[in-house]
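Shipment paperwork, digital attachment
Item: protein structure file
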Amino acid sequence: MNFKKIHHVAVICSNYEVSKDFYVRVLGLTPIREVYREERDSYKLDLEVNGQYQIELFSFPNPPARVNYPEAAGLRHLAFEVDNIEEAVHHLKELQVKVEDIRIDPWTEKKFTFFADPDGLPIELYEC
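Attachment content:
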């Protein structure tokens, strides 16, 4: 196999309108297309990340809750690269998003921090 890049990441939310607002208004991702799939009673919103990648936001009736323990099997977190982590954290805090303290990666010496989406999915900001 010769992978070129990650094409998309899919996220299932428990409250579509709340998560849509979070990913679009709070995180500033650009909607590409939104469809309602009647046979599944499910919305799917494709979101652009800086013209390159997509996040697919799905809604399904009564999805099971996320396992809270961060080292559980499955997706651990979603990470976004930023140029200035302090600016990004300030933006999130202005929108009432709880953000952990900025830390330094001991191996790369880069700054990073975490916050969560409305369903508790951990999201990392990583300054490059």
